[in-house]
C-alpha cells in the first residue's frame, strides 16, 4: 500500500511520543473473539499432542527474545554493499539467508528511503511485523490511534515522533499483512563513510526500521 501518510521517534520504550498519552496495548482490554479462539486452538493442539506445552512456551520465549539487531545488520550490509542492497530489495528473506539470518517463513519486502521518498510501516488490522528482524512491536505500533491515523494523516503522525519532512518529500505508507511484511532501509547518515559494518549496525534503530524516525550520528 503506497499513499501519503507519516510518523517518527527514537524512544526505546513502547509509549506514544510525548505529550500524547500512552495507547493501551491490545492485551489491556477484554479478551476478543479472535484472542479467545487463538487460546482455544493452542490448548486443543497441546491436548492432541501436536506439540507440548513446554515446546509452545519455548517458541513464545524465542519470539520474545528477538531484537532489532538482525535487521540492523542487514541494513548496515546494504549500506556498505550495493550488490547486497539490490538482493535485499529483491528478496529480503533470501538476502537474510546469505547472512545466516532466519527471517521466518513470511515474505518480507524492503523499501528504501531516499531524499525524495520516505517510507513508513503500519498494520491497519493488528500488529503484523517482521519480528525475526526487528523484535517485538512496540505498544504504539499496536495502538488503534497509530493504526488508523498513519494511513489518514501520516505527515502529522510522523511530526509527532519528531520526523518533520519537507512538503516535496513523498510519504509512502505500507500496510503489513499476514502474508507480507515490510522493512524500511533508512538513509545512511552523513559522515559515516569511513565506518565499518559493525559501527554502522550500531546506528540503526528499531524505529528507523519501521520508518518513524531518521537516523542521526549524534
Summarize the helices and strands and which ones pair or pack.
Layout: H1 33-47, H2 53-64, H3 69-80, H4 82-90, H5 92-98, E1 108-112, E2 117-122, H6 131-134, H7 139-142, H8 144-152, H9 154-160, E3 170-175, E4 181-185, H10 197-201, H11 206-210
Parallel strand pairs: 1-4, 2-3
Helix pairs in contact: 3-4, 4-5, 8-9
Which structural class fits the helix and strand makeup?
mainly alpha
CATH homolog superfamily of one domain: Nitrile hydratase alpha /Thiocyanate hydrolase gamma
Could you estimate the helical fraction of the residues in percent? Answer: 40-55%
Give the beta-strand count.
Answer: 4
Structural overview:
41% of the residues lie in helices and 10% in strands. With 218 residues, it is mainly α. The protein has a domain at 67-210: Nitrile Hydratase, Chain A. The strands form 2 sheets. A two-stranded parallel sheet has the order 1-4. Strands 2-3 form a two-stranded parallel ribbon. Helix 3 packs across helix 4 (82-90) and helix 4 crosses helix 5 (92-98).
Features:
218 residues, mainly alpha, Nitrile Hydratase, Chain A, two-stranded parallel ribbon, two-stranded parallel sheet, 11 helices, 10% strand, disordered N terminus
Q: What's the gist of this structure?
A:
Helix content is 41%, strand content 10%. It contains 11 helices and 4 strands.
